Amino acid sequence: MNTPLTRLDNRAARAIFMDRHALGEQPSGSAKGVALLDLIQRLGFVQLDSINTVARAHDMILFSRRPAYRSANLKRLYERDNALFEHWTHDAAVIPMEFYQHWHLRFQRDADMLKARWKNWRRDGFEQQFDTVLQHIRDHGAVSSSDVGKDEKKGSGGWWDWHPSKTALEYLWRSGALTVVGRDGFQKRYDLTERVIETHLCPGSTPCDAEGTVDWLCNAALDRLGFATSGELAAFWDTVSAAEAKDWCAAALESGDIEEIEVTCADGRLRKTYARPDLTTEVPQPPGRIRVLSPFDPMLRDRNRAERLFGFHYRIEVFVPEAKRTYGYYVFPLLEGDRMIGRIDMKAHRDRDLLHVKALWPERRVRWSDARTRRLNAELDRVRRLAGVEHVTFAKDWLKEPV
Predict the structure, then answer these.
(1) Rg (CA), the chain
(2) Containing H/E element for 119?
(3) For residues 255 and 173, what is the distance between their CA atoms, to the nearest angstrom?
């Protein structure tokens, strides 16, 4: 007779997931130096994004957990203290330097994948620029894409069609020969990895241990998710293949390092997943204050998982033509306690020194009370400080009916 699986009810699952994403406690505490690095290590990485309607994604992610945070704190940790490096997970991200040795496998895989893919995207000639670009950096120090390939033509496909030397820079970064040492505005600056990373950590300093790396990545992903399917483990860092994650789960299950459990989704359905045998439900219930989250917040990055756990369907509409958008160009999710209660369309107008709220859509079954408006106003007052503006204004009829 099979032993019944451990079952997590939906509220316990949400609390565990939020706790692993540093959203289960009061948003307070230091947000610079070692304390900020500890937070990023806890999250695993912080996604970077250039859109700045209120503040950039990485700033919003860190601010929502530590309201004392300001963007200069991350810049200092990254560019001065060399405590973070920038590379790719599912997208560009800053990652604790402590994890750098586990990125050698990613360098190898990106080298093979990008060389094949980019040849099909009309970027022919970038491989011929490798030696020229590397020599230029040896001679002149860190460069941005505007410092190389000045006489080269871009393609006709918009910002995706970089000139060959820009493509070479990106390829050499993604494959490990170069390291991004910071950004001017949002433009990356690249330097030789051997000048930035300690010699014993540089790619090629030791043979790449693929098996050990997969083991570390799967363990680290599970620690940050609390519970996960093999597919969710693979997607977390986006380096491990689906087959490798499935094999890792089978071996970890056999050894007793993980067990299969059932998680109750927001709609009442049960989903089989994996967790540590000692997974505890004794985690703090999230505070009741309203928080504005980045569309790229790690709690929402896996849109399907967020919908299963919170019943919150969210898709960013940046690339959707305006006439076809359901909500808006860049709409921020709203978290209250352990519930997603709505989404807000707002923008910082720094030339007018104000944060303007265009619209807010509560979720269905969320009654927008006066108390919620007061909690929202308190959060918007915090957000406008991050955005560097003095006032908050609201459009007429800003409170919408649920869609």
Answers:
(1) 22
(2) helix 104-119
(3) 38
Cα 19 to Cα 80, 106, 302, distances in angstroms:
30, 28, 16
For residue 84, count other CB atoms closer than 10 A to its CB. Answer: 23
The amino acid that residue 29 corresponds to is: G
pLDDT band at 159 (very low <50, low <70, confident <90, very high): very low
Check: CB of residue 14 under 8 Å from CB of residue 310: yes
What are the structure tokens assigned to 6, written together?
């451990």
Q: How far is CA 239 from CA 223, 247, 336, in A?
A: 16, 15, 33
Q: Looking at the predicted structure, is the pLDDT value of residue 156 above 60?
A: no
Show the DSSP H helices in 64-102 as ranges. Answer: 71-75
Exposure string over 230-240, b if 16+ CB within 10 A, otherwise e:
bebbbbbbebb
Give Cα separations from 290 to 17, 65, 259, 348 (angstroms).
Answer: 18, 12, 35, 19
Residue in this structure with the two tokens 């820079």, named with its chain if needed: 169
Gap between the Cα atoms of 275 and 262, Å rounded: 10
- Run of H or E including 330: none
Length of the chain: 403
For 229, the 3-state DSSP assignment is: coil
- Beta-strand runs (E) in 227-286: 227-228, 259-264, 270-275
Output the CA torsion 149→156→127→88 (10° steps).
90
**Tens digit of each residue's pLDDT (9 = 90 or more) over 250-292:** 999 999 999 999 999 999 999 999 999 999 888 988 999 999 9
In Å, how far from its chain's centre is CA 106?
Answer: 17
Q: In angstroms, what CA-CA distances link 200 with 195, 205, 280, 399?
A: 12, 6, 38, 56
